Amino acid sequence: MRRRDYDLTSEPVRGQPQPAPARRAAGPVAELQRSLGGNRAAASLLARKGEKSKGDRNKGTFEHSLRIGKLGPIEVKDSNVSDLTSQNGHARDLVVTTALGKHSDELKKLAAGASKIDAVEVTTVTGQNTWIVVTLKHGLITDYEEDRSAKTASWKLTRFDAIDVKRLAIGSARP
User: Would residue 68 count as lying in a domain?
Assistant: First the structure.
């Protein structure tokens, strides 16, 4: 009997099942969708619509905001987050000025207590289609003080253990 050697590297024969093509890397929109937690959250952010409860029918998202556990989004009026994320930054604490709201009493309690916060997530929109999400882990809120106009409060997040910076963009970043 003769033995035949088949060349398996040649062209595939018609009618035979083909192997599935390799998966390509996720695009920026898919990455955004996964980081936000799904289609609804991504659509909400892109449409500039925030989650709405009965009392917040006209509330939108903020260009600069933060989230502490279930508190948030909280509008950030001023912060030094760019000092924390830049290569030349020497900041050791996150110093924030936030708008007063329903969250203010809870922030005051967190500042009065001496327990660390699991995570504080600061989101900043930069340019037309880019934003930065900075997550500070295991920090302590201190120095909570409301201003005289009763519109903002200033406070610090100090002694945090880790910082994670994600830069997200749809397409190429634009100024």
Answer: yes
